[in-house]
TrEMBL record:
Stored SUPFAM superfamilies: NagB/RpiA/CoA transferase-like
The protein's role, per its UniProt record: Catalyzes the interconversion of methylthioribose-1-phosphate (MTR-1-P) into methylthioribulose-1-phosphate (MTRu-1-P).
Name of the gene encoding the protein in the UniProt record: mtnA
InterPro entries given in the database record: IF-2B-related, IF-M1Pi, IF_2B-like_C, Initiation_fac_2B_a/b/d, M1Pi_N, NagB/RpiA_transferase-like
The name this protein goes by in its record: Methylthioribose-1-phosphate isomerase
Transition state stabilizer (site feature) positions: 160
Protein source organism: Sabulicella glaciei
Length: 360
């Protein structure tokens, strides 16, 4: 995708040395577009843990490159690195998927061969994600084209950030939107702010604006109201893990959007790559681990002041404690369908196995 007319991926090898890794520090967006150099696997782990990179597919790709950095440093530390990288974020299954791919690729290799193989595997994971997301866009585009054919304009509501900043390129839920815009469809996006970290207001709005897509930032609680008044034609969200039975884990607040969509007859679609499927889990509510993040993300807010300074201020009453579950699970019964790189399907076990028989 592009920033100021220049094409970027969200993770790439440093062009100067060819072995360190570059990312965009997402904690500094949208106020500053700041490429960050990762030269050790611990820096990669820190970037994932602190959400300098976030988004399930991108976490997996950066973790894979983190393993490659570790193998360049000391190929004998493979097991330690895999274990510690896996502990950085608990909910997104893509992280463990990417680490398992590196483990399978490297474990039986002589230590001297591991670095080269690890870099090759990380590159394959990144390229696969970019192509997968492009195909998700193609498979989701007809949903928007059908609405545009009926109504002339498409109003999409999305939650959190599921664009190219959350993946290697294109995005999941935003990929069909970008393709619709590029085809000339009249697309407008309602962008949930996505408290407490404001990934919608900071990242999705930044992406859409950079690409020229019409959008409006709204408070997280506005979605139901907009649906009641016919202002939402479709809800498109991404996901961090989809179970065998079609339950969907995504950013906290997604479940409430699905409930509002069901009550108002608005289609609720979830876009995902194959790496987000977890066929070992049946009951998402009972079995998917939900990351609990620092309460300060709820009590404090970061923004830019009128004179251009980026400041963090407290908005909650002093002495009040805060809980901060980062994700929730939307049961499959509330999901209209899933958009994958292999096509669209219902959110149930049989439909998923039709698309992915090898995962049976």
């Amino acid at each position: 995708m592009k920033i100021n007319g220049v094409s970027y991926r969200s993770v790439w090898l440093d062009r100067e040395d060819g072995w360190s890794v570059r990312i965009f520090d997402q904690t500094r967006l949208p106020w500053e577009v700041a490429p960050l150099r990762l030269s050790t696997w611990r820096e990669a782990a820190h970037a994932i843990r602190t959400m300098q990179v976030r988004g399930a597919p991108l976490i997996g790709a950066v973790a894979a490159y983190g393993v490659a950095l570790a193998m360049r440093e000391d190929p004998s530390q493979l097991d330690e690195v895999l274990r510690e990288m896996a502990e950085t974020r608990p909910t997104a299954i893509n992280l463990r998927w990417a680490l398992e791919r590196q483990k399978s690729r490297l474990h039986n290799l002589p230590p001297a061969e591991r670095a080269e193989a690890a870099y090759a595997e990380a590159a394959e994971i990144a390229d696969d994600d970019a192509e997968t997301c492009r195909r998700i866009g193609e498979n989701g585009l007809p949903l928007l084209e059908e609405i545009a054919a009926r109504k002339g304009k498409v109003n999409v509501l999305t939650h959190c950030n599921a664009g190219w900043l959350a993946t290697v390129d294109w995005g999941t839920a935003l990929a069909p939107i970008y393709m619709a815009h590029d085809k000339g469809l009249d697309v407008h996006v309602w962008v949930d702010e996505t408290r407490p970290r404001n990934q919608g207001a900071a990242l999705t709005a930044f992406e859409l604006g950079a690409h020229g897509v019409k959008h409006t930032v709204v408070s997280d609680n506005a979605g139901g109201h907009l649906m009641q008044h016919g202002e939402v034609d479709i809800v498109l969200v991404g996901t961090d893990r989809v179970t065998r039975t079609g339950d969907v884990a995504n950013k906290i607040g997604t479940y409430l959007k699905a409930l509002a969509a069901r009550d108002n007859g608005v289609p609720f679609w979830v876009a995902l790559p194959h790496s987000t499927l977890d066929m070992t889990v049946r009951d998402g509510v009972a079995e998917i681990p939900i990351e609990e993040r620092s309460g300060t993300e709820v009590t404090d807010v970061t923004g830019r002041t009128a004179d251009g300074r980026v400041e963090t201020v407290r908005v909650a009453a002093e002495g009040s404690e805060a809980a901060n579950p980062a994700f929730d699970v939307t049961p499959a019964r509330l999901v209209t369908g899933l958009i994958t790189e292999r096509g669209r399907c219902a959110a149930n076990e049989a439909a998923l196995l039709d698309l992915y028989p090898e995962k049976g």
